[in-house]
Write a structure and sequence with these properties.
Four Helix Bundle (Hemerythrin (Met), subunit A); mainly alpha; about 85% helix; 2 domains
């Protein structure tokens, strides 16, 4: 009898510890954790540096940067903008679902997020092929040099975001996430939102503004 009581007491203690740990995480870090916020800061700093390079180039070569956007496939850029925004919606739904312990819904929305990333990559590869067939590559002029660097760098980050989402999906299949423990899933969502936000800045800079 005492053994049963002791075991029950231990289970209760472990359960309370898990709850306290989750609450402590939210109190100190809020959404995500320190590591992901630090990574996001580094990523934004990197892109901000090249945004500055873009603006300097625009100031020195106004004619090239005025004509540049007219030579790009704006429709492809718009489609990819909608794709990434849709992906952000899906990953937000995934985070909301795991907080309610709706594991199947979480998996569904994570797979949809991953699919949006793959679709983005497909459209971007097609756009690169379209540019090359139209005679525009990274050595065409300063504008296209910046265009290829920024968009390819962002392309790589989308692949990274897809890898993170896939890692979370595997973890979810393994039972690692629940309503109490989902910080990694939230961090994956934050990284996707960061990629989305960067593209929302890149799109008007390259495709719209003259």
């Amino acid at each position: 009898m005492s053994t049963v009581t002791l075991s029950t007491s231990k289970l209760s203690s472990i359960d309370n510890t898990e709850i306290d740990s989750a609450e402590l995480h939210r109190t100190h870090y809020g959404i995500g954790n320190f590591a992901i916020w630090f990574l996001i800061f580094i990523e934004f700093t990197e892109f901000a540096f090249f945004f500055v390079v873009f603006l300097i180039g625009k100031a020195h070569y106004p004619d090239i940067f005025f004509q540049g956007p007219t030579k790009l496939n704006t429709i492809a850029g718009m489609i990819n903008t909608l794709i990434l925004i849709t992906g952000s919606f899906f990953v937000a739904r995934a985070v909301s679902a795991i907080k309610q312990d709706q594991r199947q819904e979480t998996l569904l929305f994570l797979w949809l997020t991953f699919f949006m990333g793959a679709l983005y990559c497909g459209v971007k590869i097609w756009e690169y092929q379209w540019n090359i067939q139209s005679g525009f590559n990274s050595s065409t002029n300063y504008f296209f040099g910046i265009y290829y660097y920024l968009t390819f760098n962002h392309f790589v980050h989308v692949l990274m975001a897809m890898s993170v989402v896939l890692w979370v999906i595997i973890g979810l299949y393994s039972g690692h996430y629940s309503a109490r423990h989902h910080a990694t899933l939230e961090s994956a969502g934050l990284y996707w939102h960061m990629i989305d936000l960067v593209w929302i800045i890149i799109f008007p800079l390259l495709y719209v503004l003259r």
